[in-house]
Amino acid sequence: MQVQAMHVANGIVNGTVSAIFAVFAALALAFCVWRARADLDDRLAPMAGLVAAFIFAVQMLNFQVLPGISGHLLGGTLAVVLVGPWVGALCVSTVLIIQCLLFADGGLTALGLNITNMAIIGTAAGYLLVVGLMRVLPKTPAGVGATALIASVIGVVAASQGFVFEYWLGGTTELSLPWVAGTMAGTHLLIGIGEGLIAATTVATVARVRPDLVYAMRRFRRPPIAATTTAAATPATV
Q1: Cys staple from 77: which of 108, 112, 126, 216, with CB 3.0 to 4.6 Å?
Q2: How much is the pTM?
């Protein structure tokens, strides 16, 4: 087995573990659909389509990390910042399903593994970082860009360790678990930096032009202090 990219091929993890994670991925996506219904509106729905198309296009372009090792944008954190965690997970999952069925990118029996790693774990880790950082960093294009950069690195590494856990449960090769964990973490740390730069540039650009389209800036925006104080000090009149 060569650990080159995040997609898991058929046979790397045994059938039992693959089936378990297929069920887990299906349940997680069903929950995301249920929660996403509250977020989707006339502004977010077309943005979700653009995010999914962008992730699909960029994932088709591999970049070399080290000799013999290449990677590509996963897109979880980018999607989280622009369209939120629930819709973001669905965008990444849609891309993975299309890649698997039409381009044989990732094994069909490993589809649940890939969705769990990239659409669920990677997105969840990125969102937790975004929540924390957006409460500390300024709500500006530069601030949201820095948030996307840091969260992307952590999200990609977390997604890679999801595969390590799956390999520990049902790996079918003779490679040692410490070697797999170290290789995946080191390689995807570099991939995460590349993804972070792309995500930061993208969301900062969108934030400058249309900040109302950036989910993270809307979700964590604080009401103006002056306006709140004035409203509280003004007596109600009939």
Answers
A1: 126
A2: 0.84
